[in-house]
Amino acid sequence: MSDDETPVAWHIGVIGGSGLAEGVGLENAQQIEVASPFGLPSAAVTTGTLAGVRFTFLPRHGAGHTVPPSAVNYRANIDVLKRCGVTDVIALSAIGSLTPAMAPGHFVAVDQFIDRTQGRDNSFFGPGLVAHVSLADPICPRLRAGLVDAAKAEEATVHDSGCYVAIEGPQFSTRAESRMYRKWGGDVIGMTGMPEARLAREAELPYALFGMVTDYDSWRDGEEADVGEILSVMRRNVDLARKVMQRLAASLPGTRSASPIDRALDHAVMTAPAARDAILVAKLQAVAGRVLK
After folding, report:
1. CATH number of the domain bearing residue 195
2. What is the predicted pLDDT for the residue at 279?
């Protein structure tokens, strides 16, 4: 076993979406401001433990839900979690359903994405430091399986896979768009899964998205996404989502074995060392310092 494959302690980063700004019930919690060279993150992080496992929580939309999906600084959020020493990231998100089988109140452990977002900073890399990571399977199967098992143990209705369509927002879909996404193979829809999943992969952080279905979007005749109903469903299920996190923490092995995603950048950087932009190299020390030595 190489040094890079030596088991380490788990440290789970949780990015909480709508309805989970109050966190996941961490013990011995401390709020910490963490700076990022990519700008301001959504909020300070809160770090503590669940079942003896280190968790660090970040509210995606800021305290009081002040940051809309298109204005979330996804790069800063992932960067500060990496700086905190997080080993894996779980995104908790409200989602709409594009299929009758995934009803409001159900949970979905997403396994694929269709990205329809526009104009968001979707990479840590750029001119002066080019890199290409594989994103064929954007979700960590180990994290996804752990979430599914934990949800079943809490007697939640959970689907162990689903294709998430990421839209720009902040408006919900038109009826025509919603029906088009169903034809594309989308199962659920949301506004924040991308570029979050892309950036987590560039930061070599295994990522899983655990979605709470709140509505049927707008593909069904006579129905449309309604904020009041969405909030009502979220309120009923927030406690269950927290219990799933607690159950997951209690189920984790004592030490974390290596994941292939831990080395996602092994062959990704294309720019020759002598040609790399020094400023960008410095900004990327937390995210990619392992391969930029």
Report:
1. 3.40.50.1580
2. 97
